[in-house]
Each structure stands twice: as structure tokens, then as C-alpha cells.
Amino acid sequence: MRIPIVSRCWCCDTKVEETMTHLFLTAPIATRLWRQFAIFAGINIDGMHLQQLIITWWNHDAPTKLQVIYRVMPALIMWTLWKRRNTIKHGGNTTFTEMVSQIHELIRKVMKLLYPRIRLDRRDCPDFIAKIKEYKPKLYVHSVVWKPPVAQKLKCNTDGASRGNPGMCSFSFCIRDDRGDIRYARAKRIGITTNTEAEVLAIHEALEYNYCNDLMGITIETDSLSLKKMILNQWKVPWEIVERIEDIRQSLQQLDARIIHIFREGNTVADSLANEVIDTQYTTEYNNFQELPSNIRRLINMDKAQMPNLRIRNRHINTQSQEQ
After folding, report:
1. pLDDT in tens, 35-81
2. Most buried of 6, 146, 194, 261 (most Cβ within 10 A)?
3. Dihedral sign from CA coordinates of 34, 39, 42, 48
4. Which domains can be identified in the chain, with CATH numbers?
């Protein structure tokens, strides 16, 4: 016969019943730790239960740069309290000062992950916050222009669109000549799958169309650098798309075609076509410029006029993958 015994609290000297609320909030050291970090955030924890406190941190009106920090703060505090509880249970101890230092270090690591180029010394939280508020990342701008194929050749841009990964997906491809005029375009919703599978299917269907219409020497252009590297045997291929990748490699050889990478900003026509059908149940096909939706016609005219789109990032933009 077993007698159930309520676990006693390891986090304080009162030896009361150990509950989640007591361990993570109402124990004296837990309350003190929450207050330590709630003060600088302007959060009043009086009268809150644990769930309320977590939601309050999550929904707190914080500057955009600090939203992630505010949202992970409850997890950092509770993790530190849990570690202290286990340390005491196994004969050790962790002081309040040590707990505060541990949380400061965790916050510093989170900030370093979010803003790798900012220099953060081992200081306390208010100093971190002040530094983040003042931080203005350097922006890198690259002009991206869709380039037509060489004379008497064709270029096929492909793209996959997804809402979630996995989620509802669609794909598209469009074929244009050396003047930038549309020869053929197709967009189709494919149901729930991953974005990688959507990108693969876009290239696979494009090559199949080119093969059926005897379009030799075509250039396939994708904004998925990882997929391009998989097709060229530079990256390992996930098992679920191995068969299609093998078919793509074979088709490229048969058509004397090549595959190159372009930034997403230069692939706007295929991207917009894929997003046009993601909420529909049908396949759309276009054989000339007049059949296209007005927003797609506008994008094609911009490409023909060689109007650039700007790619803006807070880190250096590697352009070596373009046209390779």
C-alpha cells in the first residue's frame, strides 16, 4: 500500500506544498525576482496569477526592437527559478544575485542572436535595453533587375508560394523571350505541402512543359538558392524530393538547359502569379500578354524597362550567386 505524500517546497524555508504557482511566483525569492525585472519594464505584478503575468509580458507595449526580449522574459525567469530549485534539491544553492546574473547573461545572448553586430558588454539589463534602443543597424541595399535571355533564347522564371510550412501552397512558371515578352505562363494551387516541395514542383512542371514543346537551351531562373544547389549536387537532397530532383537533372540535360539563381526581388512576375491562385481551386494558363491580370502586366512592363527593385538587408548581401 502506497501513501501519497505531497512534495514539499525546495525553493524556500517555509516547506509549504510545492505547486507551480508557489515555485514560479508566490515564493518570496520568486516574487522578488519577478519584481527585479518588472520594474524597468513598467509592469506591476501585484495581484496577478502566473498565467496573467506571462500574458502581460507578452502583450506589453514595447518598442519593436525589444518585443522579443519582453516575450521571452517569463521563460528566462521561470527557467532560472527551476534550475535553482533543482540545485537546492541536490545539495547546492543559488543566491538571488547569481540568479539575476544568470538572467542578464541569457538576455545578453538573446540580444546577441537578434543583433549580432552590436557590441554588448557584460552589464545589467537596463544597460542592455538602453543600448538596443540606441542601436541603428547599417542597411545594405542592392539593386535587383530581371535580365532577359540572350538573343533568340528563352528564360523561364519559377516560384512556389506557401502559407505556412507546411501549409497551403501553389507554384507558377512563366516563359519570356529575349525582348521580355511573355510566351507562356502557368500557375496552380497544389494543396498542403512544404515551400521546398512547391519550388521543386514549379521547376519540374516548367521543364516538362519545355520538353513537350521542344524548347531547347532554355534558362531556368529560381529564387531558391538552396534548391539550385541541391539540383547542382552542391547540397544534400532531402529524401522526400530526391525522385523529383533526379527527374529535374535529367530534364536539364535533355533540354540542354541551365538553372540559375535570382533574388526574390527580381522574380516578381512568377511570385505574383503563384500568389494569385493560392486561394483558388483551379489552374490558370496564359498564352499572351493580354490574357494576364493587370498587376502581372505591370510587373512584366517594369522588367522590360529594366526598372530595378531594391533588396534591403541589415547585413552584407552576397551577390556571387547571381547568374551562376
Report:
1. 999 988 889 998 899 999 999 999 998 888 888 989 999 999 999 99
2. 146
3. positive
4. 20-134 (no CATH), 143-313 (3.30.420.10)
